Amino acid sequence: MTAFATAPKLKLAVFKFASCDGCQLQLLNLEHELLPLAGRIEIAHFLEASSRVEPGPYDLSLVEGSVATPADAARIRRIREESKVLVSIGACATAGGIQALRNRADVEDWKQRVYPHPEWLSVLPTSTPIADHVKVDHELHGCPINPLQVRRVLLRALLGTTPDLPSGSVCHECKRAGRVCVLVARGAPCLGPVTRAGCGALCPSLARDCYGCFGPLDDPNPPSLAGRLAELGLGPRDVERRFRGITGYAPAFRALADRIAEERSAEETGGSADD
Hints:
alpha/beta; Rossmann fold; five-stranded parallel sheet; 2 domains; about 10% strand
């Protein structure tokens, strides 16, 4: 008798915060691959797929999206209390997402400029990842996430073990697939050397440079890559923009981009970034 046959059903919940729903759709995109698991998983809360809502506690909660409002901050704390294991999924949940671009601006000024009644809005000054607010057990990176990684998390949860997720760089995936390096051979401004694996090196496989949607790997070296990008002819502003993308609020990318911005500003004003 298998472990699946004797184990109780896994009570699964999927929640959405500030996001586009794309990572939740990746779970649904597993389609027939989910069928063998259907008898072992009880979907208790997943509004993208069903109107059925069961109260917690939950064995496993998948959380998509960033925390952008006071209500979000309160809700993620409640979800954490009701979840034995909490996994943040996607660039928004793990790095703040594209909406974290607002973190470098004055959100109150934006509200005044964009909305006819800004007083109706209740938002936080920043858009931040789930881990900035509660303990996260595991993270699935990407924009969107790789559906096969979701399957791996579900299978490991059913077996009561920790998911084995990629920790190397996109370059590793390129090399294993025998693909030509777009950074070396084409001089493309590829972020693959500092970006976490998991996408299957999708963009380099199409002769396109990686733009870092899976975020920084565990031990990146963005300053070294920034130096190489400068050698390829990218100016400081362009290098900064490369690291300000979908996962630009991740600490490793943000620190480099902020440093470049400070140095550029100091040069423009005739000062020094260390002043």
